[in-house]
């Protein structure tokens, strides 16, 4: 039994992570923007579930959440920085600066602030793992090989819109690598991974970038089964690495 913190736990991948972690007996802190509206989460009604308010865009809620957790827990084993937004899918030539700034606030500065606030508790944990949920869309490396064998998407990741999202995940990857290097001597593992193209609100919206010619086929349930294998196997030897949900390494 370990203690996990999952951000963005109200729906999609975050909610399914919470469900599967609880099902195997872990203690889960589910961080959401508005606990009163997280009806699917509250319906889980599990003894090992702790729902807290945390909006990654609002530093005061991160500070308050960290203070609450310091009182309730002596340590945290694993932080999963899952909360994220997609932003505009406009073509790069039409990308909007304010959209790019907002997406970076949520997808890059959010995980950094949450990690910084929870680091004292993570240092006291047994597993000492920080997992940042990234995307293959943040990869500047080999797109041909990693676009999931889907002709509609193959080689298209640079050409389609969503610059804010793609840049934010590339920046999150750099954050992962930098933190991993810095925290290695503390025994803390930091990884990032793509969950696959998953059927969630965000995953479904993503098909717009491909003019509806491609859509997600991976269920959240199956993605999370794979993610948990990756998380369970993560140790210092994997720190600073970028994975597909299958555990295959991804090119930066
Ligand atoms: N689905 C995919 O195919 C896919 C592929 C690659 C990577 N990812 C990544 O996987 C993660 C989860 O995606 P998803 O598909 O589950 O997306 P989703 O269905 O759109 O859910 C996003 C979650 O993030 C939360 N969130 C958004 N802004 C937040 C904020 N400021 N503070 C706290 N929570 C916030 C949402 O909370 P509210 O309910 O309050 O809005 C929601 O719980 C994201 O980091 C995403 O980039 C997803």
TrEMBL record:
CDD domains: carb_red_sniffer_like_SDR_c. Gene3D superfamilies: NAD(P)-binding Rossmann-like Domain. GO terms for molecular function: oxidoreductase activity, acting on the CH-OH group of donors, NAD or NADP as acceptor. Pfam families: adh_short. Coiled coil: none annotated. InterPro entries: NAD(P)-bd_dom_sf, SDR_enzymes, SDR_fam. Belongs to the short-chain dehydrogenases/reductases (SDR) family. This is NAD(P)-binding protein. The lineage of its organism: Eukaryota, Viridiplantae, Chlorophyta, core chlorophytes, Trebouxiophyceae.
């Amino acid at each position: 039994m370990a203690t996990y913190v999952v951000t963005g736990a109200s729906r999609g991948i975050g909610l399914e992570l919470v469900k599967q972690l609880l099902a195997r007996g872990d203690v889960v802190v589910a961080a959401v923007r508005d606990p009163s509206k997280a009806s699917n989460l509250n319906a889980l009604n599990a003894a090992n579930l702790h729902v807290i308010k945390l909006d990654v865009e609002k530093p005061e809620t991160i500070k308050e959440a960290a203070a609450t957790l310091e009182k309730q827990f002596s340590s945290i084993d694993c932080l999963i920085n899952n909360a994220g937004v997609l932003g505009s899918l406009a073509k790069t030539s039409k990308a909007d600066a304010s959209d790019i700034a907002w997406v970076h606030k949520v997808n890059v500065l959010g995980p950094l602030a949450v990690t910084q606030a929870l680091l004292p508790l993570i240092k006291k944990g047994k597993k000492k793992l920080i997992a940042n949920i990234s995307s293959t869309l943040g990869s500047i490396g080999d797109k041909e090989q990693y676009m999931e064998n889907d002709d509609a998407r193959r080689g298209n990741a640079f050409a389609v819109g969503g610059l804010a999202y793609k840049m934010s995940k590339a920046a999150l990857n750099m954050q992962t690598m930098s933190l991993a290097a810095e925290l290695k001597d503390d025994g803390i593992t930091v990884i990032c991974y793509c969950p696959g193209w998953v059927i969630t609100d965000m995953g479904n919206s993503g098909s717009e970038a491909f003019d509806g010619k491609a859509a997600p086929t991976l269920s959240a349930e199956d993605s999370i089964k794979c993610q948990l294998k990756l998380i369970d196997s993560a140790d210092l030897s994997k720190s600073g690495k970028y994975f597909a949900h299958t555990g295959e390494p991804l090119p930066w």
